[in-house]
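I'm stuck. Please check this protein.
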Amino acid sequence: MPPQASARSPLAGCLIFILALLIMVGLIAFTAWMPFRQAAEIEKFTKEAPAPVAVEPTEGNEAKVNALVARLEAFRTDLDDASKPARLELTADDLNLSIAAFPQLQELRKSFRVREITADALLIDICYQLNGRPRLARKDEEGMMASDPRYLIGTIKGHPLLARREVALQVEALEVPGATIPQGFMEHFSTLRLFERYLKDPVLGPVMAKMTRAEIKDGKMVLARIPGEELPEVVSDATFKQGSQRFITLLGIAACLFLAFAATMVFLGIRKQKRLEKEGGGN
C-alpha cells in the first residue's frame, strides 16, 4: 500500500504559520489604525481653527494684581505653620486675573476663562487643544509622531480636585454647541491635571502638598489647610488615564486571543501529524 503523503505533509504546519502571521498582521494594522479612528471621532466635536477665549486685562488692573499677590503670599505663609489653619478664597475674577498675570499659568491664557462660580461648580469657557489626525511623515520635538491640532471649544462644568501634592480639575460635564460628546472621551477627559508640571516646582509644589481641601463654597473656590485633617490620597495615574486604559485592555485581550488561537492550532496540528504518522506506520 503506498505511503500516505499527508502523514508527512508540511501543509498543516504551513497553514498554522500563515494563520498566525495573518492574525499578527491584523493586530499590527489594528494598532496603527486606532489613532486615525480616534482622530476621526474627535473631529466630530472639535474645530480645525482655534477660537481663543478672552483674557483678563492686566493693564489698568495693577492694584488688583498686587492685592491678589499679597493674599497669595499670606496664604503661603500661613501654610508654613502646621498648627494654624490656612484659607484662600478666590472669585471668578481672581482666577481670570491669575491666568492673565502669572507666568505659571501662561499656557491657560486664551484657553481657559472662568465664566462663573455657581453654588457647586466652576463654569469654564475653553478653547482646549487636542491631538488630531497623525502626520506619518512628521515628528514632534520629542521624536514622536506629530499630529494636526484640533480645538475643543465649549464650556466645562467641574470642580477642583485635591489629592496629595496636586490640584486638578474634575470635569462633570462638557458642552460643545452642535455636538454630542462620546462617553469614552468624557472618561478620558474627566480629570485635567493642569498643575501636574508644578509638582516639583520649589514654590507651588510645597504649597499644593500642604493643602487639605479644594472646594466650591458660597460662589468661590476655596483652598485650605485644616490642622489635623488627613491629607487626601496620592493621585494615581489610573485616575487620569481611563480612556487610554480601555484601549490597552482591548489590545491586551486581542493579543491573548491571538496567543490562545495560535497555541490551539499548533497543538491540534501536532496531534494530527502524530496521528497520521501512527496510522501510516501501522499500514
Summary: The chain has two domains: 5-37+248-282, 48-240. The longest strand covers residues 145-163. Confidence is low (pLDDT under 50) at residues 1-8, 239-244.
